[in-house]
Write a structure and sequence with these properties.
Elements lengths: L8 E5 L4 H12 L3 E6 L2 H13 L6 E5 L5 H15 L4 E4 L15 H21 L1 H7 L1 E6 L14 H20 L5 E8 L15 H9 L3 H9 L17 H11 L11 E4 L7
Parallel strand pairs: 1-2, 1-4, 2-3, 4-5, 5-6, 6-7
Helix pairs in contact: 1-2, 1-9, 4-6
């Protein structure tokens, strides 16, 4: 199916992360030119190289970006426009939890870190591309989390889940506010999306901070590659780990004209972990 994304300009924040890599390569596979915006420039460069090695039709450009800093965002947007032209697509993917903790033990540093990354970063990047969207229309996909609407998945991550809840409300509010500009805004709530292997994960990723100890072990990742049925996901209707492609496939559709009548929606990609 031709999604009509050839030659479009897309920005994916957090583009070197597990979900981010899938998003960047997914849009490039559809012929979009993609800025991989991430603080980890080395890992972003690996994604850029991988896109060339795979012969993807869209170009990928890694740009070091801190979404919590307006100056860094502005520099990234300026480079994007210089290399690819005005922005057509924004995927607000940068985010994450700093560390698991009981809510009553949440310290101010973790509180501010998670709000700055998940809430303020999303707001600031979106504001930075507003001029392009006002003139040309476009599509925004906000990556939220199952923790934003499923209580069980927010255990030990209450502040992070609350921040992602903000992203869900922002999605609906902005879909209404910018509709007259021809801008569609939707959100994806991933379940547990695992890396293909620990090697693809950057040093700053939550997978290195705690994920490969408390969420999924390297041994489970190996089992998942060999036999999805061997992975203990019995509580899900679809009994396997989520993959980056699962998020990317939906994101590219939502940003295409094929989804031209879809806006303000939240879609769970969780193997049936959430069924509203």
């Amino acid at each position: 199916m031709d999604l009509g994304l050839v030659g479009k300009t897309a920005i994916v924040t957090g583009g070197s992360g597990v979900i981010g890599q899938g998003l960047v390569l997914g849009f490039a596979a559809e012929g979009a030119n993609v800025v991989c915006a991430d603080r980890d420039l080395a890992k972003g460069g690996e994604v850029e190289l991988l896109s060339r090695e795979q012969g993807l039709p869209g170009r990928v450009l890694a740009i070091e970006t801190d979404v919590t800093d307006r100056a860094s965002i502005g520099a990234m947007i300026a480079t994007c426009r210089e290399k690819f032209g005005p922005v057509d697509i924004l995927v607000n993917n940068a985010g994450g939890a700093r560390q698991p903790a009981s809510f009553d033990q949440l310290d101010d540093e973790t509180l501010e870190w998670e709000l700055a990354l998940n809430v303020k970063g999303t707001v600031r990047v979106t504001q930075a591309v507003a001029a392009d969207f006002r003139e040309r229309g476009g599509a925004i996909v906000n990556i939220s989390s199952s923790g934003g609407h499923t209580p069980g998945s927010a255990n030990d991550f209450v502040n992070y889940a609350s921040a992602k809840g903000y992203v869900l409300v922002l999605t609906r509010a902005l879909a209404g506010a910018w509709a007259d500009w021809g801008v569609r805004v939707n959100a994806i709530c991933p379940g547990l999306i695992v890396p293909e292997s620990p090697d693809v994960v950057g040093e700053g990723s939550l997978w290195h901070r705690f994920g490969l100890d408390s969420l999924v072990t390297p041994e489970q990742l190996q089992k998942a590659r060999e036999d999805s049925a061997a992975v203990p996901m019995a509580h899900l209707p679809i009994k396997r780990f989520g993959r980056p492609d699962d998020i990317a496939n939906l994101a590219v559709f939502l940003c295409s004209d094929k989804a031209g009548y879809v806006t303000g929606q939240t879609i769970s990609v969780s193997g049936g972990g959430w069924m509203p």
